[in-house]
Design goal:
alpha/beta; Elongation Factor Tu (Ef-tu), domain 3; globular
Length: 271
């Protein structure tokens, strides 16, 4: 089997929390493709690449030459031409993420020359509000959306509802809080499900993103009723969250969106 060229370089690694990293990747001798906020790219490393020292042992032998590939949502702005930024969680027993977490700045890897995906705002009318629900690293495509648009020049409302186990797992929290301070039409709702583990008392929302919807927290912040006629919903992250949110939103008249059957709920499932 021919060896596939590793065509990109790790330019930056930021550890958000143990097992959570933001990685910036530069193309090596080629230009990044155009992409739409919300799309994903594919990373790859050969089976011969070393694994992160604290990850689980490889359960089965792997081909040392063959690329191990996985898709990751892009977090950087679509206007950024120098690098792609990705938000990645370590899966200790996984095939690729233990190898990605073993990389250092300057190391090479494979990056897809084309971004893909339909999880974008293309089909959202300009006069409709947007609510973005995420768990864990599911916030990544929303960062691309927020970074790509000058949202404070728009009349519609935006909200990001992001849940994690603990406050230190809320990647991009500082940036989202800054956007909230600068943009009166943007609201950020961080939610944690393990407040008892916080070193300092958590003053924010607890539980899961579903509870934010049930308690009408966003309606109260916006001061308006949220309906399928005036708002689009985006769901990204754990399949269980998506399933429960689809059920809740369907009860309120929202409908899953597909290319053949347009609706008001846009989905991007992990795992």
């Amino acid at each position: 089997m021919a060896v596939v060229e590793l065509n990109s370089i790790v330019a930056q690694k930021v550890e958000v929390a143990p097992g959570l990293s933001i990685i910036r990747i530069l193309p090596d001798g080629w230009e990044l493709p155009l992409f739409k906020p919300g799309q994903y790219t594919v990373l790859g490393l050969p089976g011969s690449a070393p694994r992160f020292v604290y990850s689980d042992p490889e359960p089965n032998p792997v081909d040392p030459v063959r690329l191990i590939k996985r898709a990751y949502s892009i977090a950087s702005s679509s206007k950024e031409k120098e690098y792609l930024e990705l938000y990645i969680r370590l899966v200790n027993s996984g095939a690729l993420t233990p190898r990605l977490f073993a990389l250092n700045i300057g190391d090479k890897l494979w990056l897809s020359p084309k971004a893909k995906g339909m999880f974008t705002m293309d089909d959202v009318p300009k006069d409709q509000n947007i609510i973005l629900f995420a768990t864990g690293t599911g916030v990544a495509p929303y960062m691309s959306m927020m970074r790509s648009q000058v949202i404070n020049q728009e009349k519609r409302n935006y909200a990001v509802v992001h849940s994690a186990w603990n406050s230190w797992d809320l990647g991009y929290r500082s940036e989202l809080l800054t956007i909230e301070r600068l943009c009166p039409n943007f609201h950020y709702f961080p939610v944690i499900s393990g407040p008892d583990k916080e070193p300092m008392p958590w003053q924010g929302h607890t539980g899961f993103v579903q509870q934010i919807w049930k308690d009408r927290i966003i309606q109260d912040a916006w001061g308006t009723e949220i309906t399928p006629e005036n708002t689009r919903m985006f769901l990204c992250g754990h399949p269980e969250m998506i399933r429960e949110m689809v059920d809740l939103l369907t009860e309120s008249g929202f409908k899953e969106h597909t290319n053949l059957d347009p609706g008001t709920i846009h989905l991007e499932k992990f795992w």
